[in-house]
């Protein structure tokens, strides 16, 4: 294999690949990047047997070929280079990385042992890259990170007519995002949230992304990138199983003002980080107290309808619930220890709902 490519483009492709498939350090083959050079350019691919990714880049290929080399050293070397062009050429049992006045060499691994990357054929559709990124920024971060509970570590991706709905929960909160999409079939899969979080970062600047689902497989493709993954069992995940019909208090308040006040008052919260939200006639009063830190309270204007239910929340969950919103939001509060639903007063292209569970108030 022998090729010449723009350094920045090749470095970007390698970096994207490593973030999508971090690799398994205990297996050198699964920690490698499979480089395939053809007349069309060069493809960089990786697999950990559960997920795969392939990223293509433009290159002038002098000699076709395929090699497997350690992924992270390749990505880090390309990122560190300042020369405008780089040459990759096989020299004996090494892949030489040549730039102006410099040479680096990576060991060749046995590419015949690499599982390769496949594609997924099935139903799916197209979504706006920016809208998909906006939805994933909130929903994917709501999933649990505890691998001991794998059913809570995914995002349910489900088509509902002309909308694509994403849902995730860690049992204490749930985020639901709905966005328009152009479908050629229905999909309903549970996708690992860690992968979708990275996908969301990479699709933010692209026009469209295609989602495809088949039995036990899911794929996202955009530009020169395609990612596939095995799916989780998550058909259970639905907000319909939550009691959301007993709302007795509705509060309209500026999201950024409430977020800022919560952040300040939470400095005085107890070990659980609990902040009490007291609902008045035309204001919210946030209170927190801790026997060691002291106490704090702050009021802000709000429009109140219905009752005066005053819940308490873990401050970090309340902050996470408010972070995606700008402008005014509505808090639909239920009495007792029932969930609160946060929504934008004027939804945009991505319709987002954030459901949080209250906490027991701090002891006086």
UniProtKB/TrEMBL annotation:
Record organism: Actinokineospora globicatena
Domain DNA polymerase III beta sliding clamp N-terminal as annotated: residue spans: 1-111
GO biological process: DNA strand elongation involved in DNA replication
GO cellular component: cytoplasm; DNA polymerase III complex
Subcellular location: Cytoplasm
Protein name as catalogued: DNA polymerase III subunit beta
UniProt GO MF annotations: 3'-5' exonuclease activity; DNA binding; DNA-directed DNA polymerase activity
Principal subcellular localisation of the protein: cytoplasm
Xref: NCBIfam families: dnan
Signal peptide (residue range): none
Keywords (A to Z) from UniProt: Cytoplasm, DNA replication, DNA-binding, DNA-directed DNA polymerase, Nucleotidyltransferase, Transferase
One Pfam match: DNA_pol3_beta_2
Species classification: Bacteria, Bacillati, Actinomycetota, Actinomycetes, Pseudonocardiales
């Amino acid at each position: 294999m022998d090729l010449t490519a723009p350094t920045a483009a090749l470095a970007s492709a390698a970096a994207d690949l490593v973030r999508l498939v971090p690799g398994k350090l205990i297996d050198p083959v699964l920690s490698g990047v499979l480089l395939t050079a053809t007349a069309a350019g060069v493809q960089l691919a990786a697999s950990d047997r559960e997920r795969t990714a392939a990223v293509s880049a433009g290159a002038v290929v002098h000699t076709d070929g395929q090699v497997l080399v350690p992924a992270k050293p390749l990505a880090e070397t390309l990122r560190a280079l300042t020369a405008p062009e780089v040459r990759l050429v096989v020299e004996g049992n090494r892949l030489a990385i040549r730039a102006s006045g410099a040479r680096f060499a990576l060991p060749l691994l046995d590419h015949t042992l690499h599982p390769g990357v496949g594609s997924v054929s099935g139903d799916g559709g197209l979504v706006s890259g920016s809208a998909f990124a906006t939805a994933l920024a909130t929903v994917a971060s709501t999933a649990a990170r505890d691998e001991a509970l794998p059913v809570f570590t995914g995002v349910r991706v489900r088509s509902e007519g002309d909308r694509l709905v994403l849902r995730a929960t860690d049992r204490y909160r749930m985020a639901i995002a709905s966005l328009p999409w152009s479908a050629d079939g229905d999909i309903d899969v549970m996708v690992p949230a860690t992968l979708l979080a990275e996908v969301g970062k990479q699709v933010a600047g692209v026009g469209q992304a295609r989602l495809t689902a088949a039995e036990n497989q899911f794929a996202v493709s955009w530009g020169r990138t395609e990612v596939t993954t095995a799916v989780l069992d998550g058909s259970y995940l639905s907000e319909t199983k939550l009691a959301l019909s007993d709302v007795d208090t509705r509060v309209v308040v500026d999201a950024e003002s409430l977020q800022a006040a919560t952040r300040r008052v939470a400095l005085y919260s107890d070990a659980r980080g609990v902040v009490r939200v007291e609902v008045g006639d035309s204001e919210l009063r946030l209170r927190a107290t801790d026997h060691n830190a002291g106490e704090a309270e702050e009021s802000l204007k709000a429009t109140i309808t219905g009752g005066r239910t005053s819940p308490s929340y873990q401050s970090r969950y309340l902050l996470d619930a408010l972070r995606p919103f700008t402008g005014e939001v509505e808090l639909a509060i239920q009495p007792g220890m029932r969930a609160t639903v946060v929504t934008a007063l004027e939804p945009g292209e991505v319709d987002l709902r954030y459901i949080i569970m209250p906490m027991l108030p701090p002891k006086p």
